[in-house]
Every structure is written in structure tokens, then in C-alpha cells.
């Protein structure tokens, strides 16, 4: 099984059909996972604020999202796992629109299956990736959403954690893995940052979260393996996200 990592989305442009995981650690991936954990029954993603407002009005959905870290006009909550944990989400439909994460996911819609990964669900996501790759007989690709098309430290470190879990699981099942150069770099980069919270706080996005008084999201997003939820993207108009049925 070949495993590749795209440190920016453009690097995945020529990938064939593989099991794909997209990571936007701070904060879209963590928010999506948290929303499903909180009991959101219908989660839609869009890259357009106008479309988000239209969907919210049409379906009575909670509007969650941000533009450059700030809550857009007419939205109910920010793209914040911590804020959403204090919001009545259970049984609600939610529309999520973010500056970067939902845009990248929309551009990757041709990938099937397309899973959403983060530190919160690292082990569960790795289990599902391996299961689907073996079932479909395909390779694996991890896409870091980055920041406006550029490298983002927190996404690369999360990719390294997910790779660690995936290689451990593959070895336990006797599945040989071949890593691309970028996948090797992701793992070695993770080894150089043993304190993920400190690394995230020092990243450019971490500094932005501090500037907008959302630093509590950093610690929440760093709760590694705290969730068994694996979000999967379903192509449609709009994009829908549902949780994969948990493994026995």
C-alpha cells in the first residue's frame, strides 16, 4: 500500500482515485468532527457565505463559520469547537462555511472516499482508512489544507500523527506500506515537535486564534484520539458530511 502526503492541496491535483483524508486541523476538521460528536443530524459544507445563508434560511439550519477568523454577519457561531460545545447542536442541522477548510474539501470532491481527519479522531480515522484501502485495493493520500495554498505546520504535524497510527495498524495486520518522501517528512517533522499544543500555539493560525481570543480551541483540538467519529464527505449540492459507522 502506497501512502502519500500533500502538504498543500495543489500537490494532490494529479492523484488517482485513492482513499483520501483531508486535514484542516485549526479548525475545520476539528469542528466537523466535534459537530458530529455533539449530535448534529445534518451537516452541510459550502465555500460561499451567500450559499450558507441561503441554506440556513431554507432549512432553518444553524450557521457556523468564519472569514479570516471572525464570525460572518448573520452567522450563529464561529468555526470553533469550543464555542460549538456550548451551543445547542443536538438534533440540529448545521451549515459550515470557512475561509479555507470547506473550500479545500469542495475542491477535493472528486476523491472517493473522502474522509476528514484531525487529532481528535486520529486513531479512528486511521482504522477506517486502512479498512477502506484494503477493501478497495487502493492507495492512501493525506491532504493538508494548508493556509491560503501555503504550508501550515499544524496540518503537517497532524498528518504525521495520523501516519503513525496508520503504520502501526498496518504492521499489526501484516500490510506492507511504502511511504512517499513527503510522508516520510511528515512523520519526522512530528518527531521534532513532541509538544503539539506549544507547536500549534506558535503556528501562524495559532497566533491568529490568540489574537481573536479563541486560544481555547488549540487545547481542545489537541485532544488526541478523544473521538471515535470519522466524517465522510458525500458529494451533492451542497456537500454533506456524515459519520462512518463505527468499527466493531
General description of the model:
This protein is α/β, with parallel strands linked by helices and 248 residues long. A 5-stranded parallel β-sheet has the order 6-2-7-1-8, sandwiched between helices. The protein has one domain: ComB-like (putative 2-phosphosulfolactate phosphatase). Strand 9 and strand 10 form a beta hairpin. The mean pLDDT is 96. The longest helix has 20 residues. The chain is built from 10 helices and 10 strands. The protein is globular, with a radius of gyration of 17 Å. Helix 5 crosses helix 6 and helix 6 packs across helix 7. The protein starts with a strand and ends in a 5-residue tail after the last strand.
Sequence of secondary-structure elements: EEHEHEHEHEHEHEHHHHEE
CATH architecture: Alpha-Beta Complex
Total tally of structural domains? 1
Helix fraction? 40-55%
Tell me the number of strands. 10
Sheet of most strands: 5 strands, parallel
C-alpha-based Rg, rounded: 17 Å
* Count of DSSP H/I helices: 10
Measure the end-to-end span: 23 Å
Main-sheet strand order equals 6-2-7-1-8
Provide the CATH superfamily: ComB-like
CATH class (first level) name: Alpha Beta
The overall pLDDT average reads: 96
